[in-house]
Structures are given as C-alpha cells and as structure tokens.
Amino acid sequence: MTAAERAHVLLERVRALHEEWARVVRALDEDAVHAPSALSGWTRAHLLSHVARNADGLGNLLTWAKTGVETPMYATATARDAGIEAGAARSAAAIIADVVDSGERFTDLAASLPDEAWAGAARDRQGRPVTGEEVLRKRLAETSIHLVDLDFGYDFDRASGLLGREFEVVVSSAIASYGEGLPAVLLVAVDGDGTRHEWRMGEGDPAKVTGTPGAVLAWITGRGDGSTLDGEVPPLPHWL
C-alpha cells in the first residue's frame, strides 16, 4: 500500500474513535468533567482539554506536511501546558463542545489532504521527523490510550478492541516513541482467537513477553506494571 492508501485506512479509524469520544463526553456532567482522571494531577477537564488541543496541534503538522511551510504543533514550548491549564477551567459544556469540534476540524483537514501530502515531512513536538501518515498514527494513539485515562468505563481491553486492525499500528508507534534505550524484548499480543502480533524491541537476545492486546497496550504505554503479562517483564523507560 502507498502512504496515501494507508492514511485513508487510518483516517477511518480516527473518525470512529472521534465518534466514540463524542458519545462519551456528552454523557459527562459538570461534576464528572471536573473530577479526577486516571492521570496524576489531572482532572478530566485537563485531559479533555489536552485531547482537543492535541487535535489542533496535530492538524498543524498535517498542514506542514501538505504545504512544506513549518507549522509547529504548539506556538511555544510552554503553549501546550498553558492551553491545557486554561482549558481545564472552562465549563463542562465548553469543554465537551471543544473536544467534539476539534476532532471534526482534524478529520475534515485530513480528508482534504492530497495524496502526496501523506508522505510529506514535518517534525513532532520532540523535534522528530514525521510524515502526514504518521500524524494519523499519533492521533490514533492519543484517542485510544486517553479513553482509558479518562477513567469513565474504558479499560485497555476495550481500547485495543476499538482499534481493530490498527492495534498493531498504535503499539508500533508507542515503541518508536521511546527512541533508544528499550530493553531487548520479543513482545507478543495474543487475541482471543489465537491471532498473534509480534514486535521486536531493543538490541541483543530478547526476553519473550506475552499477553492479551489490552495488557500489552497498557504496559507499552506506561499504564501497567506488566504483572498480567507472561515472561520476564523488564522495566521500561519513562513514558513521555
């Protein structure tokens, strides 16, 4: 498949996850929005504001990939955190509308990209090179992992199920996000029907670590200690 063909498949999964988010946030009342999330120090209002600003920031990267004009995710190094803090102080209605509207802006922009833009180059918040297609992978990771972080009825088994075939994409992206320094591991996720998904991490003779898709996704994203995985589970570097 070409980058454009892969991107169109990824975009449909992003749309589905955005629809899931829209259903979830519309069920939150004022108290629920401002209650703690599963992320230390963040209320759900912080998390939802982050999800919305991430959509806009990744949209900037799609524009960069399309036009070749440098358009960073955030205007300054402090703009991300400042936007989250400011956003978290809003009413539930404003935050919910922001999550839905920003998701629609992102998918509308992505749908407008010409095929060649999916191979276009940009740089993420850490300065690493990304293509337009890889921007969609990042959005998939954000919208699946943070559903669990919302602490409103989703676990990693459910999140991995929502990803469907793109589950492999999100785990691969999570592994790549660590850069160097990962332990040598042959990571294996086994579906309920016995289908296996494998990733090789780090250098050297790997330890084999096996688990359900949900357990693998939780561990590789720093949300699980690996106690539900089989094998000698090594510690991972700090998740970004």
Automatic annotation (TrEMBL):
Pfam families: MDMPI_N. Residues 14-150 form the Mycothiol-dependent maleylpyruvate isomerase metal-binding domain. The keyword Isomerase applies. One of its GO terms (molecular function) is isomerase activity. Keywords: Isomerase. The keyword Isomerase applies. SUPFAM superfamilies: DinB/YfiT-like putative metalloenzymes, SCP-like. This is Maleylpyruvate isomerase. It comes from Amycolatopsis oliviviridis.
